[in-house]
Amino acid sequence: MKIDTSPYRVAEGRPLDLGQHPTRVHPLFTSKGQYQDVLADHTAKLGELQGLLYASGSHSVLLVLQAMDAAGKDGIIKHVMSGLNPQGCEVFSFKQPSAEELRHDFLWRTTCRLPERGRIGIFNRSYYEEVIVVRVHPELLAAQGLPGRAVEEETFWTDRFRSIRELEAHLHRNATCIIKVFLHLSKDEQRKRLLERIDEPGKNWKFSSADVAERARWHDYGQAYEACLAATSTAAAPWHVVPADDKKNARLIVSQILLDTLGRLGLAYPDVDKERRQEMKTIRHEL
Length: 287
Prior knowledge:
By secondary structure, the chain is of the alpha/beta class. Helix content is 46%, strand content 11%. It contains twelve helices and five strands. A five-stranded parallel beta sheet has the order 2-3-1-4-5, with helices on both faces. Helix 2 (73-80) crosses helix 11. The longest helix has 25 residues, at 32-56. It is globular and about 70 Å long. The termini are far apart.
């Protein structure tokens, strides 16, 4: 089953209105069994591609996941990446910066966690928090020790967008493939999921009163995401706005985006020259 992911890609250089992007689309499967079969097929293929990625050692892959609270980032990692070899995959979550991280530029703490060639890195939230959460809560800039005049510049946020674009262009030139996904959740669906975290004992640990406080800034976050995604979606590192009200649909769409992107890398096992083949034949005979 091949899913067309082009409708979810954010065009480069155009304004973005999230209100024009659905949070729910028609189910991509007809039954739970079909969903499980398609997801299993996708995860198996991703596992094969990961093996090629590791063997070739020519590229690295970075998956960036951004979303409002309860949009399903953890579920994407758990279900979509279930077929990967843990030795070739690392997940990093970026929350409140440490004192050491605040003494560096805003891209430093994530740059230290970029995947090496042959590996897949997953950022559960990322450097984009610095142009989303910090933009909604500009008081957080006070802890970053920046000169007052820098923060007061009208171009402060556009300069940060430029820094991100330049970083991603640099990574692209150096064989890091960047896949960026925004899980687009509706406010009603978030309410439902937050209530489930309160009502279901097995989900109580997920609940945070901070999620409710941030929910009150829903409109502000929407504006911050629109500005961010429009300014940083490029041909080399495009954003995808994935409908997230249906978790199963979202997982299938994200897994297809990953398959399409890795498939375009042209990965292959390293060539073995004649001398090496003869060496292996000799060793085989000795064995």
